[in-house]
């Protein structure tokens, strides 16, 4: 019933020429400090889609790492592993949290250590919303 | 006729009630018991290599409880998150001296003593970083029932899948409990207090 009315609403909106769009907001972007010699780092952020349509995070880029990518840490039977995500869906009116031990931006091929207190830029590329450049703050390794 | 039907219906109600009572009183299905696992065999003395390149014997940990975590220094997410969590909880459980935090590399081919030393120092609290020869590490992994395996990355590099459980040992190096990343802060703190001085 509910599904039907939503479908009808979507149809009505579409036929009026009024399109719902995703609206992406990124907050609390941070990365953990790394030590000399470490060739990987991790960055996190909260991605909110306050719009009325779905979107998808397709890629992340930064000039601080040669191969930044989306990763997910998962624990199966007490064994933790990281897996690459091709993309990350961002449902309308939803929030996806990139956080320690979960989905993260894997800074593979780190060019230089991430020092606590500094800020660097990460570009997020979305399927619908285009690109967003976000400052990422480096926090002390033991901060959170 | 009607009386007979009424009797049958009441009888059915009675049977249903008895069935309900039986289900309620029936002993629950046997749950797997952790006590059956040979937990007391976890751990034991070991010798690895400290961040100074000198051999490190586990006897040096005695006198204080110890939280041991296995990981690798190129691990950007789960390993530093676990060490940050342990550092923070140790402060709450009694301070930086409350127990030892030990980080053992499961990537001895890449992690030199200096690497584990630098990694351990990142947390601004005493963390003992250990590595060793491949054979040494394999032996200690077996003692703790730790699993690890290389997982290739697209750029030819590799990550390491590994046991993320923290092992809590008492002041004599005897196994006390495990601590999983999924466990809540309150549960974790209670467990850590059991090994805190
Ligand atoms: Cu990762």
From TrEMBL, chain A:
Tree of life domain: Bacteria
Pfam annotation, one family: PCuAC
PROSITE patterns for the chain: PROKAR_LIPOPROTEIN
Stored InterPro entries: LpqE-like (IPR007410), Lxx211020-like (IPR058248), PCuAC_sf (IPR036182)
Protein's name in the database: Copper chaperone PCu(A)C
TrEMBL record, chain B:
CDD domains in the cross-refs: SCO (cd02968)
Any one GO molecular-function label of the UniProt entry: metal ion binding
Keywords of this entry: Copper, Disulfide bond, Membrane, Metal-binding, Transmembrane, Transmembrane helix
Residues binding Cu cation: 75, 79, 162
Transmembrane stretches, start-end: 7-25
The keyword Cytoplasm is assigned to this record: no
UniProt keyword annotation of tRNA-binding present: no
Ranges in a coiled coil: none
PROSITE patterns the UniProt entry points to: THIOREDOXIN_2
S-S bonds: 75-79
Domain Thioredoxin intervals: 37-197
InterPro entries (alphabetical): SCO1/SenC, Thioredoxin-like_sf, Thioredoxin_domain
Family listed: Belongs to the SCO1/2 family.
Protein name as catalogued: SCO family protein
Organism (species): Sphingomonas edaphi
């Amino acid at each position: 019933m509910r599904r039907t009315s939503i479908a009808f609403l979507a149809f009505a909106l579409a036929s009026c020429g009024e399109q719902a769009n995703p609206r992406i907001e990124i907050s609390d972007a941070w990365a953990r400090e790394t030590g000399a010699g470490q060739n990987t780092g991790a960055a996190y952020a909260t991605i909110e889609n306050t719009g009325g349509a779905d979107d998808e995070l397709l890629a992340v880029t930064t000039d601080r790492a040669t191969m930044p990518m989306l990763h997910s840490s998962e624990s199966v039977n007490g064994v933790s592993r990281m897996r690459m995500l091709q993309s990350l869906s961002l449902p309308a009116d939803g929030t996806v949290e990139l956080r320690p031990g979960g989905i993260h931006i894997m800074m593979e091929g780190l060019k230089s250590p991430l020092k606590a207190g500094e800020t660097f830029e990460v570009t997020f590329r979305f399927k619908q919303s285009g690109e967003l450049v976000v400052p990422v703050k480096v926090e002390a390794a033991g901060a959170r | 006729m009607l009386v007979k039907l009424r009797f049958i219906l009441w009888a059915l109600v009675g049977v249903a009630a008895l069935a309900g009572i039986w289900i309620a009183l029936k002993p629950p299905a046997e749950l797997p018991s952790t006590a059956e696992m040979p937990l007391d065999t976890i751990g034991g003395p070991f010798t690895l290599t400290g961040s100074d390149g000198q051999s490190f014997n586990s006897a040096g940990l005695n006198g204080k409880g110890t939280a041991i975590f296995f990981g690798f220094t190129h691990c950007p997410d789960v390993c530093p998150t676990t060490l940050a969590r342990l550092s923070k909880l140790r402060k709450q459980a009694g301070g930086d001296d409350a127990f030892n935090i030990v980080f053992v590399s499961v990537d001895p081919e890449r992690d030199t003593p200096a690497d584990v030393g630098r990694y351990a120092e990142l947390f601004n609290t005493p963390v003992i970083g250990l590595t060793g020869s491949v054979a040494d590490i394999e032996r200690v992994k077996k003692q703790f029932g730790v699993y690890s395996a290389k997982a290739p990355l697209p750029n030819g590099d590799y990550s390491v899948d590994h046991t993320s459980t923290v092992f809590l040992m008492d002041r004599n190096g005897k196994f006390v409990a495990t601590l999983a990343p999924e466990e809540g802060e309150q549960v974790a703190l209670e467990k850590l207090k059991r090994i805190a001085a």
